Amino acid sequence: MKHLIDIESLSVDEINQIYNRALEFEKGHRKANHINSNIVNMFFENSTRTKMSFEMAENKINAKKYDFCADASSLNKGEDMFDTINNLSAIGMNVFVIRHNDDNLVKELSQKVYFQDAAFVNAGSGIYSHPTQALLDYYTIKRHFLDVKDKTITIVGDIAHSRVASSNIALLKKIGAKIRCLAPEYLTGDKVEGVEYYTDLNSAFENTDIIMALRIQKERIQEHINIDEYIKNYQITKENLPYAAFLMHPGPVNKDIEIRSDVLELQNAKTILNQAKNGVFIRMAVLDMVLNSMGL
Amino acid sequence: MKHLIDIESLSVDEINQIYNRALEFEKGHRKANHINSNIVNMFFENSTRTKMSFEMAENKINAKKYDFCADASSLNKGEDMFDTINNLSAIGMNVFVIRHNDDNLVKELSQKVYFQDAAFVNAGSGIYSHPTQALLDYYTIKRHFLDVKDKTITIVGDIAHSRVASSNIALLKKIGAKIRCLAPEYLTGDKVEGVEYYTDLNSAFENTDIIMALRIQKERIQEHINIDEYIKNYQITKENLPYAAFLMHPGPVNKDIEIRSDVLELQNAKTILNQAKNGVFIRMAVLDMVLNSMGL
Amino acid sequence: MKHLIDIESLSVDEINQIYNRALEFEKGHRKANHINSNIVNMFFENSTRTKMSFEMAENKINAKKYDFCADASSLNKGEDMFDTINNLSAIGMNVFVIRHNDDNLVKELSQKVYFQDAAFVNAGSGIYSHPTQALLDYYTIKRHFLDVKDKTITIVGDIAHSRVASSNIALLKKIGAKIRCLAPEYLTGDKVEGVEYYTDLNSAFENTDIIMALRIQKERIQEHINIDEYIKNYQITKENLPYAAFLMHPGPVNKDIEIRSDVLELQNAKTILNQAKNGVFIRMAVLDMVLNSMGL
User: Fold this and answer.
1) ipTM, 2 decimals?
2) What is the mean pLDDT of residues C15-33?
3) Is A252 within 8 Å of chain B by CB?
4) Contact state of C66 with B56 under an 8 Å Cβ cutoff
5) Does the distance separating the beta carbons of A47 and B90 come in below 8 Å?
């Protein structure tokens, strides 16, 4: 694996290689020592969790990490992204971990021949792609259930605008799991073949093994989302959450919006912190594989 | 010592353990190698000195350090502090060094059972607590005078709004030193038992061994402090500074406000840079003890 | 070499020592291990390239690096620069890498006796001085041509307001190269003895070995530079660039302003990324020599 662009570019084999390598890191069966590797984190959108998780992973594989502060940078001076990366690559940066609102940026960068010595890892882009999130969600499910293929996963929330949803759907489809999406019609987005769409919570939750709640973006609530209606019909509560279902959420949870606060105290919600924990192993695995493919 | 919340929570024994460990670090008799420890610095208020001092200490004990940028973080997205820390703890952060304007935050965090794997160090909070400052001030005094108990320390300035003053008073009371506070009535604050209060500089400075000047917060001058009167009656000058007294200041000094510039060239003021230097040893000691108590 | 203040303060011997040490680093013949050295980067002006280049160099010589965030610092609280540096020096910072709009700051700092334990490296100041840029440009030329003395270098652009131009002129004069400056009269600035000034591109480019294009500062275009006229008479194009000339640029290029885009695809422009690459070796050499002179 030279780059991590999106889930679509990965084969099932590669997904399982990442899973296995992450598992080796979790169990302490593998150590990585990339002391001569330089990884630069370029986050053009706010993010605590993903950025800190990547930084932790970079430390754990003993790479050197750099923080490219988008605001404090020459990008203010009209320099474009390609030039910046070309320059950083000349300086000696090996891997570029990028979060950006442009869904095509990482792919375009990976296709430039003059970046042949650079690798790109998508840390979340636009509304379509957040591959490390989908990989860590898969890891979390598989780690518990072993076989994901015969499981039913229901994704709930603003499906149309969630890169977590798109990437998870792409991954779970590849694996062959049963995917349900639950949302009011106006938040459903383009329907994906093979996915079952629901507007009624109780029907969607029936026989569901895993419920993935999405974060409702606060900035979308006022204009685009009828929040009272959403809460009434789609908020996850102690009453409507199936007893044995795993509850997942990419974090941070908007309490009492997509999930009622008291649900977070249930055993079902323990998964959410496991997702955070597993994210580090997945990112270690991805970076380790990318660096290995560069001979580093 | 699991956390460093405030001076009030420390016993005299613990204070002297911190002193001794800092001394070992200063003398090079102790090395610490916390290569697998992850410390995150969360500064929600501006600070050069304290933040850089903690970073230096973290490097010197070979811990991994992380910078949580308050502005660039998901806290913008409405996430609350507990969730953030819960997540960072799941990711693998061991120690949280926190500066925040809320005086209760660090204590509250330390009391949550679900943070059992996390340690909290108060790097300055609200107007009451700045324990590492008081510890380094104590270290600086004791390092020079050996016995602090029979010394007279006069604290001068806006006592009412200074966390440096509160923490020093708490510590020096525990140790049994003679404490004087010098300030105009309206800056004196709630009187603490066992402390002598003065409004007249010459009386307060008589037979004083150590004078601790406080920083006058610029933002308080216009509205709350009659600055001309303050300078006239309380500014430390070559004329009113006792010949043999140690002059201390937490820095940065507002020159020609709390201290007249030319005083800073005197031998008495050499202590101020020693405070800065000693701060690193104290923070090494605190972090080392906290990490040890976690088995790290 | 205790400090790197400006090119004027360096002897030809010192310039060549820096060249030789950088060459040793590039070839892998020298390793530096400054594990106990603490270098703080203080960038008071935006910069991606120079800052990242210094950070890479600091990592490669195994020093500890610190980021002094100008905005997030106590300088907001009215503290002045000297106090800050005095404090950081007491904390244990050894080298201060400073970018600032004040051309005299680094020199003044280096002259304070109380900073005797601190070294200062100018990372670009005001409109006069950017010594590491001139050193890396010299390195890039000498690395290719071996002898720089008999070469003709033409500097093109807003000479009057470019610290890259001033530092390069100072260095190339010391070395004894033939220097030409090409600019419209109003962007020429004070004429330097020994430099040939041109207003006509074709005359300036005749028999030129190296062309150094300067970055036109966007913020100066509207008010101070007649940009259409500049492009018509001074933009570097495939048509006017001499076939064998090396094209240099400090980056980032304003495409289709100082250089027409398609020129960047030519072999002549390959030098530009070499400049970026070489910058790391020069900064490693400078920091290594500064630290050696401190016994570190």
Assistant:
1) 0.93
2) 98
3) yes
4) yes
5) no
